[in-house]
Amino acid sequence: MRLGPRLYIVGAGTIYMAHVPELPEKYVCTACQTMHAGTVSERTDSGHQYEAPAKCGCCGETELVTEKDWPHFTQ
Length: 75
Ligand SMILES: [Zn+2]
Description:
Layout: H1 5-19, E1 26-29, E2 35-37, E3 39-44, E4 47-51, E5 64-66, H2 70-73
Antiparallel strand pairs: 1-2, 1-5, 3-4
């Protein structure tokens, strides 16, 4: 019996999604690098939509970037 690698990955992903709760999008303060959980702006069938907090709760900076954009921001 042969199972293609794609099939295996889809199966594993399904199990992962079933057992791990949805994680909120995270934002990084560009001034002090504190990480903040995103604010839920909309609930959708597939989960939630997030937006950056209005300002950093630690230093008051208003520019926050998503966690995935942070490595690009620092370059
Ligand atoms: Zn800050």
